Amino acid sequence: MRNTTTTPPVGPFESRDVSLWNLFSGYVLVGLFGFGGISASMYFIAVEKRAWVTAEEYTTTLALGQVLPGPGLMNTCIIVADKFHGLKGVLLSLIGLLLCPILILLGLVTVYDHYAYLPEVQHATYAAAAASVGLIFGMGLKLGKAIIKRKSALLFMTCSFIAIGVFKWPLFETMLVLAAISIFVGYKEIE
Amino acid sequence: MDVDLLLSIAQIFAKVSVVSVGGISVMIPEVHRQVVELNEWMNNAQFASVFALSQVAPGPNILLMTLVGWRVAGWAGMAVATLATILPTTILSVLANRLENKLIHAKWYLVTKKSLPPLIVGLIFSSGMVTAKATGLDALGLLIVACVAAHFYFYKSNPLLSIMVSMVVGVVAGWAGIL
């Protein structure tokens, strides 16, 4: 099967042999394999398994997707789909990514609602929530370690934590102001 | 179908998504503020269970928004919540892709790329705090948080595995009468 090739792709995107079906079925797998988010499964499918893009192209796309607002990894998926099949590819990629996970989730929720009275289910859910909180903090620590060298970075990190986490200010207005100040300071630092 | 409800869902989720650089985990505090505190569409316990369930299922993290929409307003709510989160940034992503070559060499792009991560990290810690509060963690819960966070930080761990192990710990602790 052509699909299982692991030779790195070459040439411009339009010339690569990535069919709509290849793209769609690939995204279905990205969704199904994506536990705790799709960052690992997207890399696995797009770079290693289906070889749509090279690791380098993927890194650039990833960075672009994560500078944009919204679900960062999905932005990356959308950008990759757009490179090969334009809006048609984008639409199919979204359906492929979301359809199976949504059905699985709703099945899970239905089963949960049915058995939610059981203490075992309550305790397991409680522990899963605690573990997810732990994962969020772990991710924060990892990302924080990478940026903490800059003094201004530490300051902005603390500001956004206090504003949103402690004071619970509205995200929209707070982020517009903080992002503007942060980008302004970033400019000054470069100059 | 409650059209007003759907419109407020659409407005809230689109607005959250458009300013949340850093993904779904960054959106949690605002979604909690809107859904639990301001509009009282669900309580803390329900929010915590939605959060936990969305983490256990495979797929993109946006499933959290999908499930909040479903809980608040059924199938229509689910569709509206998901689309409102995705649509604005889909348009932005496609535009960004088509302008990419101009973008990645622009100075403001480089500055933005460098300037936003600190804010994102602050928001991620906020998310941890808000979800911890909503879950109402006791000593065992805090222990699970600390262990999973440390494990994730020091090792390249599989998130689902951490969640599964914690669930077993939770059930066993319940049997032992600790939880």
Short description:
Chain A is mostly helical. Chain A has helices at residues 20-33, 39-49, 55-67, 72-115, 119-147, 151-166, 171-190.
List its traits.
heterodimer, A: 191 residues, mainly alpha, 7 helices, 77% helix, flat, B: 179 residues, 9 helices, 82% helix, globular
Number of helices of chain B: 9
Rg of chain A, nearest Å: 20 Å
Question: If you average the pLDDT of chain A, what whole number results?
Answer: 90
Largest sheet of chain A: none
Residue windows where pLDDT falls under 50 for at least 5 positions of chain B:
none
Distance from N terminus to C terminus of chain A (CA atoms, Å) equals: 53 Å
- What ranges of chain A have pLDDT less than 50 throughout 5 or more consecutive residues? none
Q: Biggest chain pair contact, residues each?
A: A-B, 98 and 107 residues
Q: What gross morphology of chain B would you assign?
A: globular
Secondary structure blueprint with pairings:
The complex is a heterodimer of chains A (191) and B (179).
Chain A: H1 20-33, H2 39-49, H3 55-67, H4 72-115, H5 119-147, H6 151-166, H7 171-190
Helix pairs in contact in A: 1-2, 1-4, 3-4, 6-7
Chain B: H1 3-19, H2 24-38, H3 44-56, H4 63-98, H5 100-103, H6 107-115, H7 117-135, H8 139-154, H9 159-175
Helix pairs in contact in B: 1-2, 1-4, 2-7, 3-4, 3-7, 8-9
Structural notes for this entry:
- The complex is a heterodimer of chains A (191) and B (179).
- Chain A is built from seven helices and no strands.
- By secondary structure, chain A is an all-alpha fold.
- Chain A starts with 19 loop residues before the first helix and ends with a helix.
- The mean pLDDT of chain A is 90.
- Chain B has one domain.
- Chain B has nine helices and no strands.
- The relative contact order of chain B is 0.12.
- The model of chain B has no long low-confidence stretch (mean pLDDT 92).
- Classes of the chains: A mainly alpha (191), B mainly alpha (179).
- Chains A and B meet through helix 1, helix 3, helix 4, helix 5 and helix 6 of A and helix 1, helix 2, helix 3, helix 4 and helix 6 of B.
